[in-house]
Write a structure and sequence with these properties.
Blueprint: E1 3-6, E2 16-22, E3 29-30, E4 35-40, E5 45-49, E6 54-59, E7 66-68, E8 72-77, H1 133-139, H2 143-151, H3 170-178, H4 196-199, H5 222-237, E9 240-248, H6 250-267, H7 274-287, E10 293-296, E11 299-302, E12 308-310, E13 312-314, E14 317-319, E15 322-323, H8 331-346, E16 360-363, E17 383-387, E18 391-397, E19 400-414, H9 420-436
Helix pairs in contact: 7-8, 7-9
Length: about 450
């Protein structure tokens, strides 16, 4: 008896996932709950465990393909049963009515319209039914894409989708709008940021190299596409402004040097500078809650909990796991959470909930030697802090030159609701907390 392996739904808002890597080959045995394949979604990269013990009999969705949730991506057979040969592997397609079975690869000619279209078939603006299977595939899209199309009065069937079987993706429709393709009757949209058009992702980008030029071309990974899409969207959405503060980290450095060995022996995690900065950032938000807010139309939404995102650089991209209710944690709790989420991010063990619900983010370019950065806000948040390299530098103190452990902190904020004065007052408080280094009551 065979067991279907399906694309799981990694969170309520996730409609599809990309198979990035199969960890087993056809014919190999697999144990129940043993990692079977890796996927990438809008929210998280994850290893998916096998639903049962057996032999991987078929791979129906090859690496790099994006399919909807609950799509069968492979099949397991009982030990001893023959695995499918390469010739018996079938290309996967999204779940569809029986009347919309994929046509053979050779049959590329447009098909004539069916004599009687089902009542539930999607209609075009003129009321006509799609002409055939290619049109049906093109008009099949996620609820979000259909909502965007309705808001801008766009006929999805007129778009060339880059998703599986020509499916129109969110990136496709946003790129179409950026190129000025919204319907004439659409409601006016908010003005785009300068340069948003040329900088936006395009389904058909201009060639940036000449034929015969010494280049290597490879497609973006699913994670890289999502990062690119989110960054461009954030720059279009928020009025980005960045302020910089120099912080004397010498008191924190001395406190850390005094306790780091005992801390690691007792807690099992290293005492880095980041928990101190995170604690100061969270404490300052209590005084300036606008930093922890978001924009909802003409409303400002103040979040009661501080869900702190910590950006983690991976070999294959960037991910931001979230420490829920960081304002309720002491320094030890923050250090443990930062270490745990970072390790699980690098080993693909994060769950969808681990990367959802962030209200404020810290990113640390200084860990790679960067003096400072101007990070892009993670929507729908309104601020993100950048931590520069922490190193000894000569500074002037009381008309004398001294060697101090210094750090540059940046805050990129959304000027739609965060004024420069409030951003600077917030950062001044963060600086004050760090330079006081009054963390002795936090269990260090």
């Amino acid at each position: 008896m065979s067991v279907d392996v399906i694309m799981p739904q990694m969170g309520e808002s996730i409609a599809e996932g990309t198979v990035t890597k199969w960890l087993k080959k056809v014919g190999e045995q697999v144990k129940r709950d043993e990692p079977l394949f890796e996927i990438s979604t809008d929210k998280v990269d994850a290893e998916i465990p096998s639903p049962a013990a057996g032999v991987l009999a078929e791979i129906l969705v090859e690496e790099g393909k994006t399919v909807g949730v609950n799509t069968v991506v492979g099949r397991l057979s009982a030990p001893g049963e023959a695995a499918a040969t390469d010739g018996s592997k079938k290309a996967a397609a999204p779940a569809a009515p029986a009347t919309d079975a994929p046509a053979p690869a050779a049959a590329k000619k447009p098909e004539p319209p069916p004599p009687a279209a089902p009542a539930s078939a999607a209609s075009t603006k003129g009321g006509a039914q799609p002409a055939g299977k290619e049109d049906l595939r093109r008009t099949r899209s996620s609820p979000l894409v259909r909502k965007i199309a309705a808001e801008h009065q766009i006929d999805i069937s007129a778009l060339e989708g880059t998703g599986i079987s020509g499916r129109v993706t969110k990136q496709d429709i946003l790129s179409y709008i950026d190129r000025g393709g919204a319907g004439a009757g659409a409601a006016p949209s908010a003005p785009r940021a300068a340069g948003a058009g040329p900088g936006a992702l395009s389904a058909q980008p201009a060639m940036t190299f000449k034929p015969g030029e010494a280049t290597r071309v490879e497609p973006m990974s699913a994670m890289r596409r999502k990062i690119a899409e989110h960054m461009v969207m954030s720059k279009r959405t928020s009025a980005h402004v960045t302020t910089f503060f120099e912080v004397d980290m010498t008191p924190v450095s001395r406190l850390r040097d005094k306790h780091k060995k005992a801390f690691e022996a007792r807690e099992g995690v290293k005492l880095t500078y980041l928990p101190f900065i995170a604690k100061a950032a969270v404490e300052a938000i209590r005084r300036w809650p606008i930093i922890n807010a978001s924009v909802d139309g003409d409303n400002i939404v103040y979040k009661r909990d501080v869900n702190l995102g910590i950006a983690v650089a991976l070999d294959w991209g960037l991910i931001v796991p979230v420490i829920k209710k960081a304002d309720e944690k002491n320094l030890i709790g923050l250090a443990r959470a930062i270490s745990d989420l970072g390790e699980r991010a690098r080993t693909r063990k994060l769950a969808p909930d681990d990367v959802a619900g962030g209200t404020f983010t810290i990113t640390n370019p200084g860990s790679f030697g960067g003096l400072i950065g101007t990070p892009i806000i993670s929507q729908p948040q309104v601020a993100i802090m950048g931590v520069g390299v922490i190193e000894k530098r000569p500074v002037v103190i009381d008309d004398a030159i001294a060697i101090r452990t210094m750090c540059l902190l940046s805050l990129s904020f959304d000027h739609r609701i965060v004024d420069g004065a409030d951003a600077d007052r917030y950062m001044a408080l963060v600086k004050e907390i760090l330079q006081a280094a009054n963390f002795t009551d936090l269990g260090v």
